[in-house]
Amino acid sequence: MSFYESAEVAAVRQAARKFAAEVAPPEKAAEWDLANEVPRELLLQMASLGFSGLVVPTEYGGRGRHVMGFLAVIEELARRSFGLSTLYALNAGYGGLNLSVSGSEEQKRRFLPDILAGRLMFAYGLSEPDVGADLASVSTTVQRKGDQVVVRGRKRWTSGAQHADYIICLARSGPEGERHRNLSMVLVPTSAPGVQITNIRILGSGGNAPADVVFDDVTVPLADVMGGEAGWNEGWSQLVGPALEIEKIQPAAMALGIAEAAVEEAWTYSEQRRQFGRVISANQSIRHDLADARTMLHACRLMLQDAAWRVDHREASAVETCMTKLFLSEQCRDVVLSCQQVMGAPGYAAGHQMERLVRDSLCFPIIGGSSAIQRNNISNLLKLARG
Ligand SMILES: Cc1cc2nc3c(=O)[nH]c(=O)nc-3n(C[C@H](O)[C@H](O)[C@H](O)COP(=O)(O)OP(=O)(O)OC[C@H]3O[C@@H](n4cnc5c(N)ncnc54)[C@H](O)[C@@H]3O)c2cc1C
To answer: Which domain holds residue 80?
Structure first.
């Protein structure tokens, strides 16, 4: 418990830590990373522990708005396996959070019970081959045809698409001229005719790695536009709406969990590895590296808890969530790299936990709004003069 973390959040964290330690020992995490698959039944177990409803309102059977608890679960899972934390995010975050915030009443009644039971996973289809940071320029289209819509185009880097039940697809629903106004989010079943999913081989994030997705004239009911018919052309406001504050700090919590695992491993290793007749942790340079790493983790934890507390209490948080995403992504990566250095050659060896942590930690300054985009946001939000 800390001055920020209530007894309730501490209990959620404890339960997540225990669960992750039981189901994801290092050899399992390595296996999932290699196979790019985390057993889906683990979601059922997480749901039965109440994790799936941490950001779902109580009127739909969730636990209300427990952003701090949600992030504590993400962090504790990532500490054992990035893939396991992504599995959870595809269910409780992309599914539970987005549908609670932007879904129509009918969609909430239809989807949330299965999300809460751990039976549904949603991938997030925003990026495209030619669209990264500039999401308002997506070229995937969605056209209305009576009470149906037709989705056509390509998405790239869609994490977990190969395992998800639905892809929340950001698509252009009107003329390009009005970029931000003519966008809609569509819930496309991955089993629908015309959906093709191809794995992308990347450096890390095994378990639920990103995939390429092609939508070849995929027809879904108009009722499956996020928010129902009223959500038509509301995709941008849904994307940058209240869910974004949580989505910005979700990868920060993952980065923190991964960095904690790296420090734990390097710390223990340094107390066991002997060179020149003594443990390497007796050397001042190693002691200082590890002391710096622990200090940085403490700072990151406080920053994340402050951002989560603000979001939980509906305080102004746009600047703080950008700062948290920026700071934790970069600092946690640096902590992991310094821990790899402490370990020497084993930290560079395939199949070693440290090597996996290094690979996983490198993505955070890129994903979920890159570091440059967060710096743009911070200077814009704080109204730094342009001339
Ligand atoms: C592991 C992983 C998982 C991912 N999961 C998903 C997912 O589930 N769903 C999804 O939709 N996408 C996902 N992505 C994609 C991710 O969100 C994008 O990589 C990210 O948005 C950046 O886009 P980009 O890589 O095309 O870079 P670009 O936008 O092409 O940017 C390239 C470089 O230019 C910089 N840059 C761009 N614009 C500006 C600017 N205005 N000012 C300053 N610098 C700028 C960027 O910071 C970056 O350094 C994932 C990516 C990875 C690696």
So the answer is: 7-120
